[in-house]
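Reviewer 2 asked us to include a model.

Predict the structure of this chain.
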Amino acid sequence: MLASIANTFTNCFKIPELKSRILFTAAILAVCRLIAFVRIPGLDGVELTNFFERSAGSGGGGMLGMYSLFTGGALEHCAVGALGIMPYISATIIIQLLTAVVPQLSKLAREEGGRAKIVQYGRYGTVLLCLGQGLAMAIGWENPTKIFGEGIGRLVLYEDTPFQIWWYRIQTVLVLATGTMLLMWLGEQITERGIGNGVSLVITIGIVARLPAGAQALKDMFFPGGGAEGKNIGHAVALLLLLLGVVAGVIAVTQAQRKIPVQYAQRAVGRKVYGGGTSFMPLRVNYAGVMPIIFAQAILMFPQKIFLFLGQSFDIKFFVDISRYLNEGAVLYMSLYGLMILFFSYFWVATQFNELQIADDLKKNGGYIPGVRPGQATSDYLHNAMSRITLAGAIFLTVIAIIPILLSREMNIPPAVSTFFGGTSLLIMVGVMLDTMRMVESHLLMRHYDGFLKKGKLRGRF
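Predicted model (structure tokens):
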């Protein structure tokens, strides 16, 4: 098996076009990593980096942990890419949701050249989000103890005069916005001239960059040093089996789809008669992808902080108790987390899967599902089928999202390690790697080379 994989990688560099695409992608990703280490002028990035290193054993979760994960550690270095590419993704998601509910945008998306305009609107939205989030981050770095907690020194190197402070804020906002727009442009260049989806690869390389820290934390678990007793071999076997099972499950469910048979009748266009045929419509089990987990985490970030602030500011014990129940790992937190993932899975399908449009397109093209009437009956059939398989996908997402929390809570696994056993990081990495493998596979098969797997296609579909 390993020899076959090595042979496939060798074949990749025998094709000039594929070789140039792979090297171009690698070079652009190296630039993206460089952006995560170039510090913003006027900020003491060393102080923040040292603070994160000191608190690595107890931190890593919540809002800052997830944001730092998506930026590849740029936040910890006060780097140019501290905003990451998340503003672009947020703007794109907002535009997608608006397209589903705003008739004008929905009509524009179906027109010729309309998609390009919608992408342009997403870029404009990215700039606005960068300016807003950049200003919030600049002010946060002015008051680091309110964001990161006690034990961190001053980060801003400018004097506390009004002119110096506003110059620092304007400069920081512009640098952060420029860094995000540069990452967005680099991602688009990878999509156009490289291999794989550029934006997804930019996020993935940031997550993969945390692997050395995770490996070090894993080593410290079993060999802590200083005479302390580490975890035994039983824990190592259990973690290895869990990792293999989770990765296998993520691959299987990511690839899983229900095939709806579609029959096309014969139809005449002018003097030509087009014969009917049989095809199928693939309905993905995990249609929403990683979005429900991101939405649920984004919403649950703030209530705990708000209740804790109100409880401490006005000395209200009830609010302090609620904030404790909403801590990551608490039973109430995990219950709300799971319910929100279920809700947002159906919410995403409801906004993005238009069964009425699909049924109408089938009817116009002379297609029908055997045993189901065209029109409204087809729409109802697709709605019911999608609702059933979405439940399976949502339950799977809930289990994957809760595994890292349970590992940290029950087995005292460091967040740097437990992050790679589930949640958004594992889903993104597996999904992006599968997509990239498909693209490489297609290039190899076009030149009559063997791909990564036998018979020239990725397995794992239900």
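The first strand starts at residue 257 and ends at 264. The beta strands are 257-264, 267-269, 272-274, 277-284, 367-368. We have added this to the supplementary material.
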